[in-house]
Amino acid sequence: MKTTTASVFLLFIIFSITPSSFSFGVANTTNAPVLDSDGNELRTGTPYFVVSSIWGAGGGGLALGMPTGKPCPEVVAQRGSGDDGIPVIFSNSDSNDGVVRLSSDINIEFIPLRPKLCLTTTVWKVDDYDHSAGKWWVITDGVKGNPGANTLTSWFRIEKVGDLDYTFKYCPAVCGTCPALCNEIVRDSDGEMIRLALSTSHGWPFYFKKVETSAMEIQQICLIVSEVFWEVTLSSFLFGVANATNEPVLDIDGNEVQTGTPYYVVSLIWGAGGGGLALGRPSGNKCPEVVTQRRSGDNGIPVIFSNSDSNDGVVRLSSDINIEFIPLRPKLCRTTTVWKVSDYDHSAGKWWVITDGVKGNPGANTLTSWFRIEKVSDIGYNFKYCPTVCGTCPALCNEIGKDFDGEMVRFALSTGHGWPFYFKKVGKSAMEIQQQSFCMKYKPTRHSKTEKPAAPSPCHPSTASLLPSSCSHRSSALINYDGSCRHKPSESLILIFPTHFIFISEFFYLF
């Protein structure tokens, strides 16, 4: 009996002490500081690289990424192994605590090492649900500070997985009454780059490597680089502005850009910066076509330039010019392919650059069709809308930047810096390109088996110099939508509908 009483008393003591000890341990763990790779406490406002704890195939450090099709806001991406990425700084929801602690709400902000390409913030946030990918991506353009319902998507946590290894988690506690997701964060691919996204599994491990340069010094360096890149270079140093105005624009080979000669206009920023400019047709408003951008590696559609001074055959800086696409395929709209600034789009808050402008006749009636080219580097240029063809006309004066209309990358007037491009001369002349486009649309007259055509068609191989080289030896040659060659079958397949004859093997437009 004494033994039983003693055992019960001992169990009572154990179960009385253990819960309080466990709770005390959890509290200490929750408030424990996060440590960097040197074993020192992480400090708010101090820059750190966030690098994968798994080397090699596990990748490198976190950085800003610009997906094709929607470059802004930038996203949280991962660099390759050996690249530490871009530094971040942390901010606590409790601004009185200068130490970053486990399981506490924090803001995370990139401190870019180069000029910002987007006007959005570099503070992390969880994006709206991506239905096409089935993901909650981590992007930028979050809000720093002001913990509460309005900033819920901008708060993250750090959790411990090893001595100096940690994962990120999205499980905000800054609004006690707000429903919120609570998930760890992993690496994922969007088909173009490695990015961070919420996950139902374990988070990806990272370590924090302190940057020797302070956040203020990094920002100062970035500011200096930005000023040099955008302001000093753009004006070719103030000393040379007067002369720079009359300087010729140069193509990528260093030759003067000539009026009437076709050039591709290609993004100076490679990869996520996209490719060349082209015609686009937005859903619901297909005509007139708009100025859009193709993906990286695609040079787009050629343009030709025309000066307001028709006696000058050289395109010059800061001079009024028309810009006109020379399509590589038949036109789908009856409007012109000359650039112009559209009416104000109230729903988007944008002045878009579209087509259907007027070529020549500088003056009040053509004001929206005149653009300028400004220099940003040796062969880098941007476009500006600031017409001087009418001295008494009020007009906007803005550089032209990339923007996204929810469907495609387009170009619009901007209060920021213009997007940089270079000009690549096309091998064919404008006349040859137009002839090719005509041949793609041209449908020759059909003759009986015994009757011979009176003369060769403009697209017959007798005009072989105008056809792609792979087509010039075939009488049955046709030109594809993209300008490449295909060969006509021996018989045209005809589908008969009540009001249409559709020739499947040829382009046949009924206008």
From TrEMBL:
Query: What is the protein name for this chain?
Result: 21 kDa seed protein
> Which family, according to the similarity comment?
Belongs to the protease inhibitor I3 (leguminous Kunitz-type inhibitor) family.
Alphabetically ordered keywords of this record:
Signal
* GO molecular function (one): endopeptidase inhibitor activity
Q: Does the keyword ATP-binding apply?
A: no
SUPFAM superfamilies in alphabetical order:
STI-like
Q: Check the record and name the Pfam families matching this protein.
A: Kunitz_legume
List the InterPro entries. Kunitz_inhibitor_STI-like_sf (IPR011065), Prot_inh_Kunz-lg (IPR002160)
Please state the span of the N-terminal signal peptide per the UniProt entry. 1-23
Supply the PANTHER family for this chain: CYSTEINE PROTEASE INHIBITOR 8-LIKE, KUNITZ TRYPSIN INHIBITOR 2
Q: Does the keyword Signal apply?
A: yes
